[in-house]
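input
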Amino acid sequence: MISNALPLSLVNNPLLSQWLAFERPGVVRITTGKVEIGQGILTALTQIAAEELDVEVEQIHLVSGETDSCPAEGFSSGSYSVSVGGGSLRIVCAEARALFLAALADRLGCTTADLAVERGRFLHAGQDCGHDYWSMAANVPLERRALGTTPAKRPADYRIVGRSLPRVDLPAKLRGGGFIHDMAPADCLHARVLRQPWRDAELVELDEAAVHKAAGAPIDILRIGNFAAFTSASEIAVMRAAETARLKARWAAGQQVSDNIGEAAWLKAQPSRDRTVETRGSGQVTAGTPVKADFWRPFLTYGSIGPSCGLAEFADGKLKVWTHCQGPAVLHEWIASALGMTLSDVIVFHRQGAGAYGHNTADDAAFDAAFIATRLPGRTVRVMWSREDEFEAAPVSPAMAIELSAVIGPDGRPSDWTTEIWSPPHAQRPGMNGNSNLLASYALPGAVPRKPIDDVAEDRGGGATRNALPIYDLPRHRLIHHMLPDVPLRTSSLRGLGAWANVYAIECFVDELAEAAGEDSLSYRLSMLSDPRAKRVLETVADMSGWFDKRNSDDGSACGIGFARYKNIAAYCAVIVEATVEETVRLKRIWCAADAGLVINPDGVRNQIEGAIIQGASFVLRESVRFENGRVATNSWQDYPILRFSDVPVIDIQLVDTPNEPTLGVGECGVGPAGAAIGNAVARALGVRIRKLPLTRENITSQLEQA
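output
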């Protein structure tokens, strides 16, 4: 019987044979449903497998995200890839190693304690005994369930885990390949799709003659319902065709959006499904001084450097799809469903893209290619999205209004705390709420109506409510969640979901409470924490930055701090930012301390935290989606500026050493603390709290005028 303690990936894929095989001498085939989206997961998983099997990294052949051979592990999201996917692989490899050792001990008439493994070969009393994994594989069947009872290695015995090994995916990329965008078979048929400008828009008219003329080379137009695609052997031709079609198409009906969609007042005026949860304590509110603060964040988009791409081939009734999505097994199911095909007739292969950070348009590009391929059998169809499509038709990360209120006791600490949130749902990935959520599928005739939607449940980390419960020792906490189910936009998951906005609000509010109490903000935080790991992270970043020696300088700069434990179950992260507020906010220096438990690849973890810090800074300082004339109005980097290389200061990251603790998800832990630290630094420099994001010159000026 499977233990409830097994990681979810192993519960859903319980056979050892679903994870590894010894088919080719000297090489271990490891399969995983987790995929590389820029986070270095393939390197970490390779290290885990090599460590537990006692082989070298170069002996691992890792196959990722191929639905005909890999375990179905859902999405690579939520900072679960190492903790859940890697945790599953550790158990599988430890059990496989133990099975081989037990079989060999029985054959040699010795104990397993007399045996060891080196590069996959077995040693008896320190000497090579002529056996290895591959010679014994036929006698050790792996078609058995993982039990989770075999001890994995002790961290003190690690050779490979804990080392900063080079990324296994970089050599191909540095040579100019390695991405799905580099795939272009000789018989490739290039395609672009005309996107609906708003939900359920009807394509009333398309000047096909103008489109053919603009293409400059032969193209075909595939038009079905409100779906239109342009195909040609020439990629330039379909690019020109799609650009002209955008200008020549006439749309009607559907659900256009207002220019003020997402503003705080707009959010609070929408129909909502409401719930109140007493997350800590209950009963009568303690007497004290009430305080309140309102915060707001706008809609955001993904801004992947490389637009999405998908390829598909339909031949002999079988469909092959290549994608850089985050959940190949889930996409597999919903492509088959949307096209009326059986799962056995569809195979999805993951290939790497230019980073995702959430539910971007990779799934949509894959479905575009799949649908077109079924109409053009025998050809490999390659769909590329344009930059304009990425901005105008990608899912958007929800705008949020957050109200925090507290009752402050005589000691200056909150005795009661309420978090109130207004937000659309943060996840409309394929399959969620029983909807395909594949954009083109809704443009086709006979599209299945959308089912009612909901947000991510708290037991899966929460969506808008992620990190809404402060990590601090609060006697009483109440969460009021207003979920807005009818916003006419496809809102979905972007790095951290609602966590970074909640952390921004909470950490700025805590700074205000510390200021009102006349106390140092870092010391104030420490006084409300009993978790020793949380305290150690804060103390570490204080030492790194010289926090207690810093004061506001004459050049308008100041330091701010932000702290959280991602989802209150993953990595701890504290960030201190030194920033200058002049014509714009300029970042001078950033310090970060993080506790991620057992670290598989320190360099990989630092890279992830650094990337999260930079993205959190970009969210808070620059990013916002605008709407005009019923649709998204930001469609270029000029309209949607992000942080540039020249804006990034020196970032000093220190990992708190806790190798005997379980591995904690780290990929999203730095986003909220970094943004909050910037907000607190800006407030210190200005002497005024800025509650409306982003912290652009225009927003700061407007809020200063109202102060």
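quick obs: DSSP finds 17 helices and 26 strands in the chain.
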